[in-house]
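Final report, Chapter 2: Outcomes

The project's central promise was a pipeline that accepts a single protein chain and returns its three-dimensional structure in a standardized token representation, suitable for archiving and comparison. That pipeline is now operational. To close this chapter, we reproduce one record exactly as it appears in the project archive, with the input sequence first and the structure output second.
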Amino acid sequence: MERNRTTLTREDGTLFLAAFDHPQIYGVMNGLEDPLAAILKIIDTDIDGYILNPGIFPLLDAAAVRSKKLVLRASLGGTMMGTTFSDHHSIMVSPQQALDLGADAVLIMMVLGGSSDKESMTDVACAIEGFHRLSVPVMVEVLHADYTQNNDPSFIRNGARIAAELGADFVKAFYCEDFDLVITGCPVPVVLAGGPKEANVLDIARTVVSAGAAGFAFGRNLFQHEDPCSVVTSLCQVLRG
């Protein structure tokens, strides 16, 4: 899988993705009312690619996104309209479907720290095996069942390692203190998840890049920014100098 992993990143091993998959959970969001317009708004920047839901892939302008990497959101866990949110995300995409849609990789959520760790881990491990059979790289995003714990250093460090041990090619993780320990404890590249819109996103980006992060997967910090092209340019400067 090393060859397939490197096809997702630049030659220097970095990766900057626009995470536009939020509507699967939230529905219509400010900045993503028109998903295709949001994609095209930053298409001419140095953004490497996009994380998108299955229904958006067939709507894409193939010529416009030809030079971009497309990461398919492959799991689901419910919506904000429900009374509860699942601590076990189900796989909703088959490996063949990912290839048919033209995905360069898939993203799977793994929720830990709740009552379904074993089920979550089993599903993620089996899904990784299936995607790898067709040489599809897998990024695993580590989430805590208690969302307020998603910046806990111990959880992020251990969750990232668990994802790598299950076969993830990349790990997507939220920011926490001592992020360098997350990097040193994880044998595969770690990509920073953006989370809520942050006023200090550039400072956080500098910190994680200095710690050894491979890149970013930012959503609201891009599509809800008044000038998304400028913030992409600034973040690329942080990531690649």
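Archive annotation: The mean pLDDT is 94.
This record, like all others produced under the grant, will remain available to the consortium after the project formally closes.
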